[in-house]
Amino acid sequence: MRFTLAGDPGVPDARSATRYLIWLASRHKRLFTVGIALGVVWMVAQALMPAAVGRAVDGLARRDEGALLTWGLVLFGLGVLQAVAGILRHRCAVHNWLAGAYRTVQLTVEAANRLGAALPRRVAAGEVVSIGTADIGQIGHAIDITARGAGSLVAIATVAVILLNASMPLGLVVVLGVPVLMAVVALLIRPLHRQQQAYRDAEGALTTRAGDIVSGLRVLRGVGGEPLLSARYRARSQELRTRGLRVARVESLLEAAQVLLPGAFLVLVTWLGARFALRDQISAGQLVAFYGYTAFLVNPLRNLTEAVDKLTRGHVSARRVVRLLRLTPELVDPAQPVALPDGPGEVADPDSGVALRPGQFTALATTAPEDAAAIVDRLGRYTDSDATLHGVPLRSLALTTVRARILVADNDAHLFTGRLRTELDPHDRDDDDVLTEALVAASATDIVEALPDGLDSLVAERGREFSGGQRQRLRLARALVADPETLLLVEPTSAVDAHTEARIAQRLGAARAGRTTLVCTTSPLVLSRADRVIFVEDGKVVAEGTHAELLDGEPRYRATVSREEN
Known about the structure:
Layout: H1 17-27, H2 29-61, H3 65-115, H4 119-122, H5 125-166, H6 168-215, H7 217-223, H8 226-278, H9 284-325, E1 347-349, E2 354-356, E3 361-366, H10 369-379, E4 388-389, E5 392-393, H11 399-405, E6 406-409, E7 418-419, H12 420-424, H13 432-441, H14 445-449, E8 458-459, H15 468-482, E9 486-490, H16 498-511, E10 516-520, H17 524-527, E11 532-537, E12 540-545, H18 547-553, H19 555-561
Parallel strand pairs: 3-10, 3-11, 6-9, 9-10
Antiparallel strand pairs: 1-2, 1-4, 4-5, 7-8, 11-12
Helix pairs in contact: 1-9, 2-3, 2-5, 2-9, 3-5, 5-6, 5-9, 6-8, 6-9, 8-9, 13-15, 13-16
GO molecular function: ABC-type oligopeptide transporter activity; ATP binding; ATP hydrolysis activity
Domain ABC transmembrane type-1: 34-313
GO cellular component, one term: plasma membrane
Protein backbone atom coordinates (compact mmCIF):
# COMPACT_ATOMS: atom_id res chain seq x y z
CA MET A 1 0.00 0.00 0.00
CA ARG A 2 0.98 3.63 -0.34
CA PHE A 3 0.28 6.55 1.99
CA THR A 4 -0.48 9.30 -0.50
CA LEU A 5 -1.97 12.75 -0.71
CA ALA A 6 -2.74 14.83 -3.76
CA GLY A 7 0.55 16.05 -5.19
CA ASP A 8 2.67 14.11 -2.70
CA PRO A 9 4.75 11.01 -3.35
CA GLY A 10 3.77 8.02 -1.27
CA VAL A 11 5.55 5.41 0.73
CA PRO A 12 6.02 2.18 -1.27
CA ASP A 13 5.72 -0.04 1.78
CA ALA A 14 4.55 1.27 5.15
CA ARG A 15 3.11 -1.72 6.94
CA SER A 16 4.21 -0.84 10.46
CA ALA A 17 3.79 2.03 12.88
CA THR A 18 7.57 2.64 12.90
CA ARG A 19 7.68 3.00 9.12
CA TYR A 20 4.71 5.34 9.26
CA LEU A 21 6.47 7.63 11.75
CA ILE A 22 9.61 7.60 9.59
CA TRP A 23 7.51 8.48 6.54
CA LEU A 24 5.93 11.42 8.36
CA ALA A 25 9.38 12.72 9.29
CA SER A 26 10.58 12.33 5.72
CA ARG A 27 7.72 14.45 4.36
CA HIS A 28 9.64 17.55 5.57
CA LYS A 29 13.11 16.05 5.44
CA ARG A 30 14.97 19.38 5.24
CA LEU A 31 13.16 20.99 8.17
CA PHE A 32 13.34 17.76 10.15
CA THR A 33 17.09 17.57 9.60
CA VAL A 34 17.58 21.25 10.43
CA GLY A 35 15.59 20.74 13.65
CA ILE A 36 17.85 17.87 14.70
CA ALA A 37 20.98 19.90 13.84
CA LEU A 38 19.72 22.84 15.86
CA GLY A 39 18.88 20.50 18.72
CA VAL A 40 22.45 19.21 18.69
CA VAL A 41 23.91 22.75 18.62
CA TRP A 42 21.54 23.84 21.40
CA MET A 43 22.47 20.97 23.71
CA VAL A 44 26.22 20.92 22.94
CA ALA A 45 26.42 24.66 23.64
CA GLN A 46 24.96 23.96 27.08
CA ALA A 47 27.33 21.02 27.57
CA LEU A 48 30.40 23.20 26.91
CA MET A 49 29.38 25.90 29.40
CA PRO A 50 30.69 24.04 32.50
CA ALA A 51 34.09 23.70 30.75
CA ALA A 52 34.19 27.46 30.15
CA VAL A 53 33.18 28.13 33.77
CA GLY A 54 35.89 25.74 35.04
CA ARG A 55 38.56 27.42 32.92
CA ALA A 56 37.44 30.83 34.17
CA VAL A 57 37.62 29.64 37.79
CA ASP A 58 41.14 28.29 37.23
CA GLY A 59 42.12 31.64 35.70
CA LEU A 60 40.65 33.42 38.72
CA ALA A 61 42.60 31.13 41.07
CA ARG A 62 45.82 32.04 39.21
CA ARG A 63 44.77 35.72 39.17
CA ASP A 64 45.02 35.61 35.37
CA GLU A 65 42.73 38.43 34.25
CA GLY A 66 43.28 37.63 30.57
CA ALA A 67 42.16 34.04 30.98
CA LEU A 68 39.16 35.19 33.07
CA LEU A 69 38.12 37.68 30.38
CA THR A 70 38.67 35.19 27.55
CA TRP A 71 36.64 32.41 29.11
CA GLY A 72 34.01 34.87 30.24
CA LEU A 73 33.54 35.94 26.61
CA VAL A 74 33.47 32.29 25.53
CA LEU A 75 30.74 31.64 28.10
CA PHE A 76 28.79 34.65 26.79
CA GLY A 77 29.12 33.39 23.21
CA LEU A 78 27.94 29.93 24.19
CA GLY A 79 24.93 31.50 25.92
CA VAL A 80 24.00 33.51 22.83
CA LEU A 81 24.48 30.45 20.59
CA GLN A 82 22.32 28.35 22.91
CA ALA A 83 19.55 30.97 22.95
CA VAL A 84 19.46 31.41 19.17
CA ALA A 85 19.66 27.67 18.46
CA GLY A 86 17.00 26.97 21.10
CA ILE A 87 14.55 29.45 19.56
CA LEU A 88 15.06 28.14 16.04
CA ARG A 89 14.91 24.52 17.22
CA HIS A 90 11.60 25.18 18.92
CA ARG A 91 10.15 26.74 15.77
CA CYS A 92 11.22 23.69 13.75
CA ALA A 93 9.84 21.35 16.39
CA VAL A 94 6.44 23.06 16.40
CA HIS A 95 6.32 22.97 12.61
CA ASN A 96 7.21 19.26 12.61
CA TRP A 97 4.59 18.59 15.31
CA LEU A 98 1.85 20.30 13.31
CA ALA A 99 2.97 18.68 10.06
CA GLY A 100 2.90 15.18 11.56
CA ALA A 101 -0.43 15.69 13.33
CA TYR A 102 -2.32 17.28 10.47
CA ARG A 103 -0.79 15.04 7.82
CA THR A 104 -2.31 12.21 9.83
CA VAL A 105 -5.68 13.97 9.79
CA GLN A 106 -5.47 14.37 6.02
CA LEU A 107 -4.59 10.72 5.51
CA THR A 108 -7.38 9.62 7.84
CA VAL A 109 -9.95 11.69 5.92
CA GLU A 110 -8.57 10.37 2.63
CA ALA A 111 -8.87 6.80 3.92
CA ALA A 112 -12.44 7.45 5.08
CA ASN A 113 -13.33 8.82 1.64
CA ARG A 114 -11.64 5.89 -0.05
CA LEU A 115 -13.55 3.35 2.04
CA GLY A 116 -16.80 5.23 1.48
CA ALA A 117 -19.92 3.33 2.49
CA ALA A 118 -17.78 0.43 3.71
CA LEU A 119 -16.24 2.58 6.49
CA PRO A 120 -18.96 1.98 9.14
CA ARG A 121 -18.77 -1.77 8.49
CA ARG A 122 -14.98 -1.89 8.76
CA VAL A 123 -14.12 0.63 11.48
CA ALA A 124 -16.03 1.82 14.53
CA ALA A 125 -16.86 5.52 14.58
CA GLY A 126 -15.08 5.94 17.91
CA GLU A 127 -11.86 4.63 16.37
CA VAL A 128 -11.85 7.36 13.73
CA VAL A 129 -12.80 10.03 16.28
CA SER A 130 -9.99 8.95 18.62
CA ILE A 131 -7.45 9.25 15.80
CA GLY A 132 -8.58 12.81 15.06
CA THR A 133 -8.72 13.94 18.67
CA ALA A 134 -6.04 12.11 20.65
CA ASP A 135 -3.73 10.10 18.41
CA ILE A 136 -2.66 13.03 16.23
CA GLY A 137 -1.25 14.75 19.30
CA GLN A 138 0.80 11.71 20.31
CA ILE A 139 2.11 11.30 16.76
CA GLY A 140 3.04 14.99 16.64
CA HIS A 141 4.92 14.69 19.95
CA ALA A 142 6.84 11.67 18.62
CA ILE A 143 8.02 13.73 15.64
CA ASP A 144 8.75 16.78 17.81
CA ILE A 145 10.87 15.03 20.45
CA THR A 146 13.44 13.74 17.95
CA ALA A 147 15.34 17.07 17.87
CA ARG A 148 15.75 17.24 21.65
CA GLY A 149 16.44 13.51 21.87
CA ALA A 150 19.20 13.63 19.24
CA GLY A 151 20.71 16.74 20.85
CA SER A 152 20.69 15.05 24.24
CA LEU A 153 22.50 11.97 22.93
CA VAL A 154 25.25 14.07 21.33
CA ALA A 155 25.53 16.24 24.45
CA ILE A 156 25.95 13.20 26.72
CA ALA A 157 28.62 11.81 24.39
CA THR A 158 30.41 15.20 24.42
CA VAL A 159 30.38 15.38 28.22
CA ALA A 160 31.63 11.78 28.46
CA VAL A 161 34.61 12.54 26.18
CA ILE A 162 35.50 15.67 28.18
CA LEU A 163 35.29 13.82 31.50
CA LEU A 164 37.33 10.88 30.22
CA ASN A 165 40.09 13.27 29.14
CA ALA A 166 40.01 15.10 32.48
CA SER A 167 39.56 12.12 34.80
CA MET A 168 39.26 8.53 33.67
CA PRO A 169 37.34 7.33 36.79
CA LEU A 170 34.78 10.14 36.59
CA GLY A 171 34.45 9.69 32.85
CA LEU A 172 33.78 5.96 33.32
CA VAL A 173 31.13 6.74 35.93
CA VAL A 174 29.30 8.86 33.36
CA VAL A 175 29.86 6.48 30.43
CA LEU A 176 28.64 3.46 32.41
CA GLY A 177 26.02 5.24 34.50
CA VAL A 178 23.95 6.67 31.64
CA PRO A 179 23.19 3.24 30.07
CA VAL A 180 22.24 1.91 33.51
CA LEU A 181 19.80 4.79 34.00
CA MET A 182 18.29 4.22 30.56
CA ALA A 183 17.94 0.48 31.26
CA VAL A 184 16.00 1.20 34.46
CA VAL A 185 13.69 3.54 32.53
CA ALA A 186 13.22 0.89 29.82
CA LEU A 187 11.84 -1.47 32.49
CA LEU A 188 8.98 0.98 32.99
CA ILE A 189 8.41 1.66 29.29
CA ARG A 190 7.27 -1.86 28.35
CA PRO A 191 4.35 -2.07 30.83
CA LEU A 192 3.48 1.53 29.96
CA HIS A 193 3.27 0.52 26.29
CA ARG A 194 0.84 -2.31 27.07
CA GLN A 195 -1.33 -0.18 29.36
CA GLN A 196 -1.51 2.65 26.83
CA GLN A 197 -2.56 0.26 24.04
CA ALA A 198 -5.33 -1.21 26.19
CA TYR A 199 -6.47 2.26 27.25
CA ARG A 200 -6.59 3.60 23.68
CA ASP A 201 -8.62 0.58 22.49
CA ALA A 202 -11.08 0.96 25.37
CA GLU A 203 -11.35 4.70 24.73
CA GLY A 204 -12.22 4.12 21.07
CA ALA A 205 -14.88 1.56 21.98
CA LEU A 206 -16.44 3.90 24.56
CA THR A 207 -16.46 6.79 22.09
CA THR A 208 -18.32 4.58 19.61
CA ARG A 209 -20.88 3.63 22.26
CA ALA A 210 -21.37 7.30 23.18
CA GLY A 211 -21.99 8.19 19.53
CA ASP A 212 -24.52 5.36 19.17
CA ILE A 213 -26.37 6.46 22.30
CA VAL A 214 -26.54 10.12 21.22
CA SER A 215 -27.69 9.30 17.69
CA GLY A 216 -30.46 7.03 18.99
CA LEU A 217 -31.39 9.01 22.10
CA ARG A 218 -34.93 9.82 21.02
CA VAL A 219 -35.66 6.20 20.18
CA LEU A 220 -34.17 5.06 23.48
CA ARG A 221 -36.36 7.48 25.39
CA GLY A 222 -39.39 6.33 23.43
CA VAL A 223 -38.90 2.66 24.33
CA GLY A 224 -37.66 3.35 27.85
CA GLY A 225 -34.15 2.10 27.18
CA GLU A 226 -32.28 5.23 28.29
CA PRO A 227 -31.69 4.10 31.93
CA LEU A 228 -30.31 0.73 30.79
CA LEU A 229 -27.95 2.22 28.21
CA SER A 230 -26.93 4.94 30.66
CA ALA A 231 -26.04 2.35 33.28
CA ARG A 232 -24.02 0.35 30.77
CA TYR A 233 -22.19 3.47 29.60
CA ARG A 234 -21.47 4.43 33.21
CA ALA A 235 -20.01 0.97 33.86
CA ARG A 236 -17.83 1.12 30.74
CA SER A 237 -16.75 4.63 31.69
CA GLN A 238 -15.61 3.39 35.09
CA GLU A 239 -13.68 0.57 33.40
CA LEU A 240 -11.97 3.16 31.21
CA ARG A 241 -11.22 5.23 34.31
CA THR A 242 -9.60 2.18 35.92
CA ARG A 243 -7.46 1.63 32.83
CA GLY A 244 -6.51 5.32 32.86
CA LEU A 245 -5.41 5.02 36.50
CA ARG A 246 -3.22 2.06 35.57
CA VAL A 247 -1.57 4.13 32.85
CA ALA A 248 -1.17 7.06 35.25
CA ARG A 249 0.42 4.77 37.85
CA VAL A 250 3.14 3.67 35.44
CA GLU A 251 3.56 7.24 34.15
CA SER A 252 3.99 8.53 37.71
CA LEU A 253 6.75 5.98 38.31
CA LEU A 254 8.38 7.07 35.08
CA GLU A 255 8.17 10.74 36.08
CA ALA A 256 9.62 9.93 39.49
CA ALA A 257 12.47 8.00 37.86
CA GLN A 258 13.19 10.97 35.62
CA VAL A 259 13.83 13.10 38.72
CA LEU A 260 15.26 10.57 41.18
CA LEU A 261 17.77 8.73 38.99
CA PRO A 262 19.49 11.79 37.45
CA GLY A 263 19.50 13.41 40.90
CA ALA A 264 21.18 10.39 42.47
CA PHE A 265 23.63 10.36 39.58
CA LEU A 266 24.42 14.04 40.21
CA VAL A 267 25.09 13.37 43.91
CA LEU A 268 27.39 10.45 43.07
CA VAL A 269 29.52 12.36 40.54
CA THR A 270 29.74 15.43 42.79
CA TRP A 271 30.85 13.31 45.75
CA LEU A 272 33.51 11.57 43.68
CA GLY A 273 34.69 14.88 42.20
CA ALA A 274 35.03 16.41 45.67
CA ARG A 275 37.16 13.48 46.82
CA PHE A 276 39.41 13.81 43.79
CA ALA A 277 39.76 17.57 44.40
CA LEU A 278 40.77 16.98 48.05
CA ARG A 279 43.44 14.59 46.79
CA ASP A 280 44.65 17.24 44.30
CA GLN A 281 43.84 14.89 41.43
CA ILE A 282 41.75 17.63 39.82
CA SER A 283 41.80 21.41 40.17
CA ALA A 284 39.10 23.57 41.75
CA GLY A 285 38.01 24.72 38.33
CA GLN A 286 37.69 21.12 37.17
CA LEU A 287 35.59 20.32 40.27
CA VAL A 288 33.26 23.21 39.42
CA ALA A 289 33.16 21.98 35.82
CA PHE A 290 32.37 18.41 36.94
CA TYR A 291 29.54 19.67 39.10
CA GLY A 292 28.27 21.71 36.15
CA TYR A 293 28.45 18.67 33.89
CA THR A 294 26.48 16.47 36.27
CA ALA A 295 23.91 19.21 36.89
CA PHE A 296 23.62 19.66 33.13
CA LEU A 297 23.24 15.91 32.54
CA VAL A 298 19.94 15.97 34.45
CA ASN A 299 18.35 17.79 31.52
CA PRO A 300 19.49 15.53 28.63
CA LEU A 301 18.75 12.43 30.69
CA ARG A 302 15.20 13.67 31.27
CA ASN A 303 14.96 14.48 27.59
CA LEU A 304 15.96 10.93 26.70
CA THR A 305 13.41 9.37 29.05
CA GLU A 306 10.79 11.79 27.73
CA ALA A 307 11.77 10.82 24.18
CA VAL A 308 11.32 7.14 24.97
CA ASP A 309 7.93 7.88 26.53
CA LYS A 310 6.68 10.00 23.63
CA LEU A 311 8.01 7.66 20.98
CA THR A 312 6.20 4.83 22.75
CA ARG A 313 2.96 6.80 22.83
CA GLY A 314 3.44 7.81 19.21
CA HIS A 315 4.05 4.21 18.22
CA VAL A 316 0.80 3.13 19.89
CA SER A 317 -1.14 5.87 18.10
CA ALA A 318 0.61 5.26 14.76
CA ARG A 319 -0.32 1.60 14.97
CA ARG A 320 -4.00 2.58 15.14
CA VAL A 321 -3.59 4.94 12.18
CA VAL A 322 -1.81 2.29 10.10
CA ARG A 323 -4.56 -0.19 10.95
CA LEU A 324 -7.07 2.22 9.39
CA LEU A 325 -4.90 3.12 6.39
CA ARG A 326 -4.27 -0.53 5.54
CA LEU A 327 -7.98 -1.14 5.00
CA THR A 328 -8.84 -1.47 1.33
CA PRO A 329 -12.20 -0.46 -0.17
CA GLU A 330 -14.63 -3.21 -1.07
CA LEU A 331 -15.24 -1.64 -4.48
CA VAL A 332 -12.49 -0.44 -6.81
CA ASP A 333 -12.45 1.05 -10.28
CA PRO A 334 -11.82 -1.35 -13.17
CA ALA A 335 -8.49 -1.24 -14.93
CA GLN A 336 -10.15 0.17 -18.07
CA PRO A 337 -13.52 1.80 -17.26
CA VAL A 338 -16.19 1.58 -19.95
CA ALA A 339 -17.70 4.78 -21.37
CA LEU A 340 -21.48 5.20 -21.16
CA PRO A 341 -23.75 6.82 -23.72
CA ASP A 342 -25.34 10.13 -22.78
CA GLY A 343 -28.89 10.32 -21.49
CA PRO A 344 -30.90 8.14 -19.11
CA GLY A 345 -30.81 4.38 -19.52
CA GLU A 346 -32.38 1.36 -17.90
CA VAL A 347 -30.98 0.42 -14.52
CA ALA A 348 -31.43 -3.28 -13.84
CA ASP A 349 -30.66 -5.75 -11.06
CA PRO A 350 -30.57 -9.31 -12.48
CA ASP A 351 -30.37 -10.84 -8.98
CA SER A 352 -33.89 -9.66 -8.11
CA GLY A 353 -35.33 -8.95 -11.53
CA VAL A 354 -35.89 -5.25 -10.78
CA ALA A 355 -35.54 -3.03 -13.86
CA LEU A 356 -36.07 0.75 -13.82
CA ARG A 357 -37.35 2.19 -17.06
CA PRO A 358 -35.78 5.52 -18.07
CA GLY A 359 -37.76 8.60 -17.08
CA GLN A 360 -40.34 6.62 -15.07
CA PHE A 361 -41.47 7.06 -11.47
CA THR A 362 -41.25 3.53 -10.04
CA ALA A 363 -42.15 2.29 -6.57
CA LEU A 364 -40.65 -0.81 -4.98
CA ALA A 365 -42.68 -2.66 -2.33
CA THR A 366 -41.10 -5.57 -0.48
CA THR A 367 -42.35 -7.94 2.18
CA ALA A 368 -39.04 -7.48 4.05
CA PRO A 369 -37.35 -4.03 4.34
CA GLU A 370 -33.91 -5.64 4.13
CA ASP A 371 -34.72 -6.86 0.61
CA ALA A 372 -35.32 -3.27 -0.54
CA ALA A 373 -32.06 -2.12 1.05
CA ALA A 374 -30.13 -4.94 -0.65
CA ILE A 375 -31.63 -4.14 -4.07
CA VAL A 376 -30.84 -0.43 -3.73
CA ASP A 377 -27.27 -1.23 -2.65
CA ARG A 378 -26.81 -3.29 -5.80
CA LEU A 379 -28.44 -0.71 -8.09
CA GLY A 380 -26.31 2.07 -6.57
CA ARG A 381 -23.18 -0.12 -6.59
CA TYR A 382 -22.61 -0.06 -2.87
CA THR A 383 -22.14 -3.82 -3.10
CA ASP A 384 -20.63 -5.78 -5.96
CA SER A 385 -23.27 -7.35 -8.21
CA ASP A 386 -24.34 -7.89 -11.82
CA ALA A 387 -26.45 -4.69 -11.86
CA THR A 388 -26.31 -2.75 -15.12
CA LEU A 389 -26.86 0.74 -16.54
CA HIS A 390 -27.54 1.03 -20.27
CA GLY A 391 -26.85 -2.70 -20.33
CA VAL A 392 -23.30 -2.14 -19.09
CA PRO A 393 -22.34 -3.82 -15.77
CA LEU A 394 -21.80 -1.24 -13.06
CA ARG A 395 -18.58 -2.98 -12.08
CA SER A 396 -17.21 -2.02 -15.51
CA LEU A 397 -17.76 1.69 -14.82
CA ALA A 398 -15.67 4.12 -12.81
CA LEU A 399 -17.17 4.71 -9.37
CA THR A 400 -17.27 8.45 -10.01
CA THR A 401 -19.41 7.80 -13.09
CA VAL A 402 -21.83 5.65 -11.12
CA ARG A 403 -22.07 8.18 -8.29
CA ALA A 404 -22.65 11.04 -10.76
CA ARG A 405 -25.50 9.26 -12.55
CA ILE A 406 -27.12 7.23 -9.76
CA LEU A 407 -27.83 8.80 -6.35
CA VAL A 408 -28.94 6.70 -3.37
CA ALA A 409 -30.73 8.70 -0.66
CA ASP A 410 -31.58 6.80 2.51
CA ASN A 411 -32.34 7.68 6.11
CA ASP A 412 -28.75 7.11 7.25
CA ALA A 413 -27.60 10.27 5.46
CA HIS A 414 -26.52 13.12 7.76
CA LEU A 415 -27.06 16.83 7.89
CA PHE A 416 -23.78 18.64 8.48
CA THR A 417 -22.87 21.82 10.30
CA GLY A 418 -23.14 25.04 8.29
CA ARG A 419 -25.66 27.24 6.50
CA LEU A 420 -28.83 25.46 5.47
CA ARG A 421 -28.46 26.83 1.94
CA THR A 422 -25.06 25.15 1.60
CA GLU A 423 -26.42 21.99 3.20
CA LEU A 424 -29.19 21.70 0.59
CA ASP A 425 -26.99 22.82 -2.30
CA PRO A 426 -23.46 21.43 -1.69
CA HIS A 427 -22.33 22.52 -5.17
CA ASP A 428 -23.13 26.19 -4.37
CA ARG A 429 -25.11 26.85 -7.52
CA ASP A 430 -27.02 29.62 -5.65
CA ASP A 431 -30.24 29.00 -7.58
CA ASP A 432 -33.05 30.01 -5.22
CA ASP A 433 -35.70 28.83 -7.67
CA VAL A 434 -34.29 25.29 -7.66
CA LEU A 435 -34.08 25.31 -3.86
CA THR A 436 -37.64 26.56 -3.53
CA GLU A 437 -38.98 23.94 -5.93
CA ALA A 438 -37.17 21.17 -4.05
CA LEU A 439 -38.45 22.42 -0.68
CA VAL A 440 -42.00 22.58 -2.01
CA ALA A 441 -41.78 19.05 -3.43
CA ALA A 442 -40.42 17.77 -0.09
CA SER A 443 -43.10 19.75 1.82
CA ALA A 444 -40.27 21.45 3.76
CA THR A 445 -41.03 25.13 3.20
CA ASP A 446 -42.53 25.43 6.69
CA ILE A 447 -39.20 24.29 8.19
CA VAL A 448 -37.29 27.08 6.44
CA GLU A 449 -39.93 29.69 7.26
CA ALA A 450 -39.68 28.87 10.97
CA LEU A 451 -35.93 29.48 11.03
CA PRO A 452 -34.72 32.97 12.08
CA ASP A 453 -32.58 33.53 8.96
CA GLY A 454 -34.34 31.19 6.54
CA LEU A 455 -31.95 29.43 4.20
CA ASP A 456 -29.03 31.35 5.74
CA SER A 457 -29.67 29.88 9.20
CA LEU A 458 -26.94 27.71 10.68
CA VAL A 459 -27.54 23.98 11.00
CA ALA A 460 -26.12 22.28 14.09
CA GLU A 461 -24.22 18.99 13.91
CA ARG A 462 -26.42 16.28 12.35
CA GLY A 463 -29.29 18.78 12.31
CA ARG A 464 -30.13 18.00 15.93
CA GLU A 465 -32.39 21.06 16.21
CA PHE A 466 -34.81 19.42 13.74
CA SER A 467 -37.20 16.57 14.46
CA GLY A 468 -36.82 13.22 12.72
CA GLY A 469 -39.52 14.09 10.20
CA GLN A 470 -37.99 17.50 9.49
CA ARG A 471 -34.55 15.99 8.90
CA GLN A 472 -36.11 13.45 6.54
CA ARG A 473 -37.82 16.16 4.49
CA LEU A 474 -34.64 18.23 4.30
CA ARG A 475 -32.67 15.17 3.12
CA LEU A 476 -35.30 14.60 0.43
CA ALA A 477 -35.03 18.25 -0.65
CA ARG A 478 -31.25 17.92 -0.87
CA ALA A 479 -31.61 14.85 -3.10
CA LEU A 480 -34.04 16.70 -5.37
CA VAL A 481 -31.68 19.69 -5.63
CA ALA A 482 -28.90 17.32 -6.77
CA ASP A 483 -31.23 16.30 -9.64
CA PRO A 484 -29.42 13.07 -10.59
CA GLU A 485 -30.22 11.11 -13.71
CA THR A 486 -31.39 8.21 -11.49
CA LEU A 487 -32.60 8.76 -7.92
CA LEU A 488 -33.10 5.85 -5.52
CA LEU A 489 -35.08 6.84 -2.42
CA VAL A 490 -35.35 4.49 0.57
CA GLU A 491 -38.45 5.10 2.72
CA PRO A 492 -38.36 8.90 2.22
CA THR A 493 -41.66 9.47 4.12
CA SER A 494 -41.41 6.97 6.97
CA ALA A 495 -41.06 9.67 9.68
CA VAL A 496 -43.71 12.18 8.54
CA ASP A 497 -47.45 12.35 9.26
CA ALA A 498 -50.08 11.22 6.77
CA HIS A 499 -50.98 14.72 5.54
CA THR A 500 -47.35 15.61 4.84
CA GLU A 501 -46.80 12.23 3.20
CA ALA A 502 -49.78 12.82 0.88
CA ARG A 503 -48.36 16.20 -0.20
CA ILE A 504 -44.93 14.70 -0.88
CA ALA A 505 -46.44 11.80 -2.84
CA GLN A 506 -48.47 14.22 -4.94
CA ARG A 507 -45.51 16.50 -5.76
CA LEU A 508 -42.63 14.04 -6.06
CA GLY A 509 -43.56 12.67 -9.48
CA ALA A 510 -43.84 16.15 -11.00
CA ALA A 511 -40.55 17.23 -9.43
CA ARG A 512 -38.81 14.25 -11.06
CA ALA A 513 -40.56 14.43 -14.43
CA GLY A 514 -38.34 13.05 -17.19
CA ARG A 515 -35.94 11.52 -14.69
CA THR A 516 -35.66 7.93 -13.46
CA THR A 517 -36.88 7.60 -9.88
CA LEU A 518 -37.27 4.61 -7.58
CA VAL A 519 -39.03 4.93 -4.21
CA CYS A 520 -38.79 1.99 -1.79
CA THR A 521 -41.96 2.13 0.31
CA THR A 522 -45.08 0.26 1.39
CA SER A 523 -47.13 3.42 1.90
CA PRO A 524 -50.35 3.34 -0.20
CA LEU A 525 -50.19 7.15 -0.49
CA VAL A 526 -46.88 6.96 -2.36
CA LEU A 527 -47.59 3.71 -4.21
CA SER A 528 -50.80 5.11 -5.69
CA ARG A 529 -48.86 7.97 -7.32
CA ALA A 530 -46.20 5.79 -8.96
CA ASP A 531 -46.24 5.09 -12.69
CA ARG A 532 -45.34 1.48 -11.97
CA VAL A 533 -45.07 -0.63 -8.83
CA ILE A 534 -42.70 -3.58 -8.47
CA PHE A 535 -43.55 -6.11 -5.76
CA VAL A 536 -40.69 -8.21 -4.36
CA GLU A 537 -40.93 -11.21 -2.07
CA ASP A 538 -37.96 -13.21 -0.80
CA GLY A 539 -35.68 -10.94 -2.83
CA LYS A 540 -37.33 -11.69 -6.19
CA VAL A 541 -39.85 -9.76 -8.30
CA VAL A 542 -43.20 -11.57 -8.16
CA ALA A 543 -45.52 -8.94 -9.66
CA GLU A 544 -45.54 -5.60 -11.50
CA GLY A 545 -48.24 -3.11 -12.43
CA THR A 546 -50.03 -0.10 -11.04
CA HIS A 547 -50.99 0.12 -7.41
CA ALA A 548 -54.65 -0.51 -8.22
CA GLU A 549 -53.85 -3.51 -10.42
CA LEU A 550 -51.71 -5.15 -7.76
CA LEU A 551 -54.30 -4.56 -5.07
CA ASP A 552 -56.88 -6.37 -7.17
CA GLY A 553 -54.73 -9.19 -8.49
CA GLU A 554 -51.99 -9.90 -5.93
CA PRO A 555 -53.14 -10.90 -2.39
CA ARG A 556 -49.60 -10.89 -1.02
CA TYR A 557 -49.12 -7.30 -2.18
CA ARG A 558 -52.45 -6.30 -0.68
CA ALA A 559 -51.48 -7.87 2.63
CA THR A 560 -48.11 -6.09 2.60
CA VAL A 561 -49.32 -2.56 1.87
CA SER A 562 -52.42 -2.80 4.07
CA ARG A 563 -50.40 -4.27 6.99
CA GLU A 564 -52.58 -7.36 7.08
CA GLU A 565 -51.29 -10.63 8.48
CA ASN A 566 -50.78 -13.50 6.06
